[in-house]
Structure formats: structure tokens, C-alpha cells
Amino acid sequence: MSKLTHLDADGRASMVDVTDKDTTFREAVVRGRVRMQPETLKLIIEGGHKKGDVLTVARIAGIQAAKRTHELIPLCHPLMLTGIKVELTPNEADSCVDIEARCKVSGQTGVEMEALTAASVAGLTIYDMCKAVDRGMTIDAIHLVEKKGGKSGHWQLGED
Amino acid sequence: MSKLTHLDADGRASMVDVTDKDTTFREAVVRGRVRMQPETLKLIIEGGHKKGDVLTVARIAGIQAAKRTHELIPLCHPLMLTGIKVELTPNEADSCVDIEARCKVSGQTGVEMEALTAASVAGLTIYDMCKAVDRGMTIDAIHLVEKKGGKSGHWQLGED
Amino acid sequence: MSKLTHLDADGRASMVDVTDKDTTFREAVVRGRVRMQPETLKLIIEGGHKKGDVLTVARIAGIQAAKRTHELIPLCHPLMLTGIKVELTPNEADSCVDIEARCKVSGQTGVEMEALTAASVAGLTIYDMCKAVDRGMTIDAIHLVEKKGGKSGHWQLGED
Amino acid sequence: MSKLTHLDADGRASMVDVTDKDTTFREAVVRGRVRMQPETLKLIIEGGHKKGDVLTVARIAGIQAAKRTHELIPLCHPLMLTGIKVELTPNEADSCVDIEARCKVSGQTGVEMEALTAASVAGLTIYDMCKAVDRGMTIDAIHLVEKKGGKSGHWQLGED
Amino acid sequence: MSKLTHLDADGRASMVDVTDKDTTFREAVVRGRVRMQPETLKLIIEGGHKKGDVLTVARIAGIQAAKRTHELIPLCHPLMLTGIKVELTPNEADSCVDIEARCKVSGQTGVEMEALTAASVAGLTIYDMCKAVDRGMTIDAIHLVEKKGGKSGHWQLGED
Amino acid sequence: MSKLTHLDADGRASMVDVTDKDTTFREAVVRGRVRMQPETLKLIIEGGHKKGDVLTVARIAGIQAAKRTHELIPLCHPLMLTGIKVELTPNEADSCVDIEARCKVSGQTGVEMEALTAASVAGLTIYDMCKAVDRGMTIDAIHLVEKKGGKSGHWQLGED
Fold first, then answer.
1. Is E160 on the interface with F (CB under 8 A)?
2. pLDDT digits (tens, 9 = 90+) for B145-157
């Protein structure tokens, strides 16, 4: 039967022991979005045409956060990420910024938490930089879309 | 005209100078949720009847993350939070865990980023602890619901 | 003659260069305890029957601290721990909480500092959560009990 | 009746809300020791006659750890420490290094956790630097000896 | 006679106790530069005309580093900076990027270390982003140019 | 044509993906200096004859900073350094302290940023400890002098 791997036999939180897992290539892709007023998005895009600073700062913040995932998420293992990519795309049709974060590692445990953390912190940073004009922004639909490597192999959203 | 306060006159990202702002009591409340399969929620609740560890770990992670907001969000100021509260409530009707984070400070700048960070990291931690049984969980609708203090006074969602 | 490996030939503090050491499986086990008033222990145990929060929070804090050992201990190397386990057992006979921390890695240097740090911070967290009712608690007898791997092989307390 | 302030009415771990506490001068003094073989202590002392590096590095590590207490201890508040002092004294009679840590702040919450953390990490660092010659060292008797400020006023060990 | 304030009467490193110092407004301005090949500077400037990313990332890194000064510099006090500004100006005449960092706080100790750290890390980040084309870059002349507040009042370079 | 590897095809800052790079032995050596008044250097040297604390603290700070390079420099990869060495040599002829930092790793990316960070933070710490007597000190000429390993092989300053 399926169970929560972070709880031991007595139901106590514990770190999964990955000592005996194989070191394989791992990759995870996460998507999400920050919903906002059309005027807010316009300010970001216009800034973007000139300097792109809101999205640059948010992208950098997401990359940096991925590296600190094991400090933020109590039962995550430290990992030596070999690649972190955060893409932020203004989406005028849905009045949001689309977030995509991708992490890679050769390691004993998956990198979905790293990609989820990168996407979340990129979204939080967009909120921070635009909050003076739009308090009602929402960080939405942060979810895993693809995962490679490890015992479970290749997983894509919608396949389960 | 409204503008993005984190970009200076030349459109470059910068930290807002709050040196001359008054020190006042500030509070922010943020809500969000982690959507999941009903079976996943059931495992959390059953664990909860015994030890409640998933929610306890996530609550602790959220509290700790709030204290590190200024490290994660590049242009946030360091703050001496006097209160951080994270509530996580299983919601069977909507098959999710409801998140509420509340931060307080006596300071020169608001604490909405701290509450947003607490809520997001609490959600990420729930994902981490349950991902072995449910990869499709989604962190959703992280948004500010109330804000007190500072020049803008009392703000509540829906009032704008 | 035996010497302090963290001091170089001139007696200056330095990090041991482990570049040429073999990568082997390493494990360390540390024990210690937090002594307290019987009433304090009773409060922890009773809480434990309901939610176990003091010990859960302390266990999480110990696990997280192990991951940050190289930041806290100036001459420790960064390590990619594959397993961290912290067990906290109320001991009514001795009016204390017994601490056991176990760390694992496949690496070029031992993990005793990581296990010692986990045990110490778990103990400090117990102190923090109970200090309102018992200021006189003592963190006691934090010591290595077993060590595997590396050039020195298997070591157990009492064998020297 | 006395209770654990870090557990709320439902027994869930939470941060104590200090928003309404007065800002007063606070001070805490903690003592402890690292027990070791007489030969180990001799190496430290001899090093000390030349450069004192073991004790200097441990003192620095303790000071730095005090500043990060709120990151290590999950429910501690961030604090702006105005003074941190760590004294390490070789004690040949008891074959140990005596540790004393003292922290000061003007704030809304006490600094005993900061002093306890400083003392513990100083002890761990002594262990780290001497472990190549003495694996059996023990970090012992880390305890609060004095506390000033706040609602509880002046407290000294033995007075309760 | 002048003396090193971070060494106590016995010559041991210690944190200056600022408990009794007045809380006053403090400001510090630091300058420095990263010298490089003219072709390297040209790449930065051309990038700058489009997106300015090298300088944006370096500016963000400098701001973030200022907030972590007390973690990096062992005897620095934690501070609640109210303003951090990092300006990076391409200087074709001298084939370098000029760095200026300015920090502000209302506190009991000066902010020159925060401004020095911001300037240094901004310079290191420029090096990182351009090192693939120019390994010989030099971070040069990081120095304090102005300091306000505290017992020593207003100081400007060249006045001593 | 040479290009800035940290900017992608669209000129956006990104982390270089090193997933497919070989794991090889890497080493980097960096030099720099802190210029100061002859009297300041004399105080350091005299302290050094007794306890050497300024240089010991600075050396420790440099070693610790190297381990945190990936947190400070936004697009740096996390690395498991196997050796960090910081040498600080008083230089009376030039009225400065000469800094040399050397880092080693077996990894997929070079360690020059780690050595540059170690040297810079060692220099900043010297400034901090002596600033009470000499505000005009300058951190100067932080530069790479040698680099081994990776695709580019052995590089020495002056060879390009």
C-alpha cells in the first residue's frame, strides 16, 4: 500500500535514507503563474522592453532559492544541482506571468522540490516588486509537469 | 501615476529606502491551499490523528521560512518579526489543505512578503512529505487577504 | 606523534585537505540527553500523547542543523548527507530526554560533526520549548558512540 | 498552572507572539564544558601558548552561531544582539575546557537561547579541531546560569 | 592610544559590545572597481543596451550580500538596514566598471562593513558572469569614501 | 566568438548547465591585498606576536565564505570543496597584508569564484577588525593567479 515516505513506522517525521539509491541523472520541470491586473502586467512588460528588471530579479531569486531548497524544506537532502533554469513569460491573454522552472542533477534523489521552490520564490519576487500597485496578485497553480530519472523513471503530468 | 517602487528612475531594480518611514505596528494575513487527491488528504488526516507530523513539519517550515524572507526575496528588508503563525487545516470538501499565515512586526515596512513566504514554504513542505503518493498536488491561490499598518492603513481583500 | 590536524605546521587553523582521500561510506552515531525536572518531562510526554510536538519540532531542528554543520563549524567540509535520523526518547527513570543522532554519507570525510550538531541542536530546541517552565534544564553528555568508514574503520565508544 | 508556551491551546507548536511585550535590556549567561583526555587539553594549551588557534576558532564559531540562533531553533525570534562574548578556559584540574557565553540585547524576548547556542557551537568546534586525537570528548553540562530583563526579572541558577 | 577594538585586553578576538551606544542614523558610502579588458567591458555594455543583465545581477547580488554581512564578517553585529543601493557604471576611459555602494540604518553601529560587502560581492558577481571571456579581471580599490552618524560624526575620505 | 556564458541566447541571465561536463580535479589560486597605514600593520603584527587574532579571524572568515560562494554569487553552482586554504602575510615593505586563497574540488565546474570569495571576505574581515584605527584601508588587486582542471586545462596569470 502507498504510504508517506517521510513518516517512519511510528508516524514520526524523518528524512528518507537514500544511501543505497543509485546515482542517476534527474530532472524536474515545474510550472505555475502569478495572476495580476492587466495594468500590472503592462508595467512589467514595459519595464521589460527597457530593462526587464522585474523578471530578471525574479529569475535570479528563483535560481538562488533552488540552491537553498534543503535549508527551507526540512526533510530534503542537500544536492549539487548542475542546472537551474527559470523562465518567466508575460501572458496577456490570461493576465499573468507564466513561470517554468527546470532543475537537473546527477544524484540519489529527485529534484522536484528544487524546481517547485525555484518557481515559488520567482513568483513571490514578482509579487514583491509589483505589490505597490497591485496587492491582489495571486501565486497560482505551482505544479510538477515532468520528472525524469530515479526508480520511477519518466513521469509526465496527466499520465497517472 | 502608480509605479513599481522597486525600480528607480532609470528602471533599475533597487531596494526601497525606508529610512524615513515611521515605525508602526504591521500585520499581514495570507491564505492559500495545497490541492491533492482525496486519498492523500486522508493519509495526512489519519497521520494527524496519531501524530500530525505532516502538518507539524509544514507549520514549522513555514515559520522558519518567514524569518528568512529577506534572504530569499532580493529587495526585501530585514525585519524583526514579533509573531509568526501558520495554520494548516485539512479541507475534505475541497480535497485540499487550507493554509493561513499571519506575521506581525513593529517596523518601517510591511510584512506581506513574510506571510506569503511562510504560506508558500508550508505548502511546499506538504508537497515534499506527500509526493511519494501524489505527484500531481498543486500549490494554489497564495494571496494576501489582510494588511494592517503603514501609510496605507488597513486593507482587506475585495475592498479595492 | 598525534597532533591536531586542523592546525598547520605553523600552528595556524586550516581546513584539512581531503582531496586525495577515498570516497567511502561513512556513518556516525551520537548520544546525549537533556536533563530536566520530572514535571517538565511529564508535560512533554503528555503533549506527546496528544501531538508530540516538542519532540517533533526538536527532531526536525536536529535534522536541519545537521545539513548546516559546515556553516556552523568553521573547518568542516560541505557534505551531501544521504541519511539523518534523530531519535528523542523520554526517560522517566533519569528525568531526561535521551537523544540519539545518526548521519550517513558517501564521502571523503567523516560525519561525526554532523551527528554531534544534530544532537546538540535537538537538545537546544527542547530547552527552548520548555524553558518557560524549567530554566534549569541541562544539555548533557553529547558524545560520539560509533563511527564507520574512512581510514580509521569501525570505532565504538569504549574500544580505545 | 505552568505550561509550555510554544504549544498553543490545541497543543500545536507555535511561535510565542511577543508583539505586546516591552522592549527592555536582556542578558543571559550560559556555562558548559568539553571534557577530554589530559593529553588533548595539553595540546590545546601548548597551541595556545603559541597561537591559541583552537580556542580562537571555537570562540569565533560560538559568536557567529549566536547570531544565527533564530535560524537553528525553529520557534526563536530574530534578535539584534548588541553583545556576544564567549570565554574558553582550559581547566587542567577537571581535564576540560570551561565555556562561558554571554549575550545582550535590547529587545522583547530573552537571549538565553542565543547564549546556549553560542556555548554549544563553541564546544562542537573544540571537538572538531581535536577529534583526530581524542574521539571520546564529551560536551557537557550546557546550562543557563543567569538571566536579566523581561517580565521575570533577574534569575540566577540555584535561586528557583 | 588607538587600539584594535575587536581584541579584548588579552588580545582575544571579541565582538564590540554596543549595548550602551546611542541609536542614531548611520550611512556609509563605498567605492571600488572591476578592471577588465576593453572587449569585456564592451560585451557588458552591449548586453546592457539590450537587457543589462550582468549589471542587474551584480547589483542584486551586492544588495543581498549587504543583508548577510553579519554572517560573513565574524564580529559584525546584525543590523536592520533601511536602505541599500548599489550603482555599477561602465567606465570606458579606465576600462572598468565603477562600483558605488551606499547603506543606511538607524542603529547602534556603523554600516561601512555592509557597504564594503555589497561592493565586493557586486564586483565578484561581475567577475563570475564575465570570467569565460576574461580571466584576468581584477577587483580593485574597494574603499570607504564617506561615513555619517555615530560618535565619530561625519567622515570623508581625504579628511583624516 | 567569445561570449558571456551566463547570458542565454536572449541575453537573459542564467546558470550555465554543467550536467554534461566531466568531473575532474579543479584548483584555483587567488591573490590580493589590504593596504593600510604602517601603524595599522604594526598593530596587527604585534597582536600577531601574541595571539595573531586579526589574521586568524580573517583566515577563518575567508574559509567559511568560500563554502557559501554559491549563496552569494547568484549563478554559481553548489560545490563540495575538498580543500580551502587562506594565507595572510603582513608585508611591511608595501604596508599591506598579502592575501592568498586556494580552493580545490573534484567537480564539474571551476573553483575560482570560491577562491575569489575567500580572499575578498578575508580582506573585509581585516578591514572590520582594524577600522577603528584606520578607516582609509583599501582592499586591492583581488585577482586569479592560477587555475587547474576542466576543459581549459592549466592557466597561469600572464600566459594569455
1. yes
2. 999 998 888 999 9
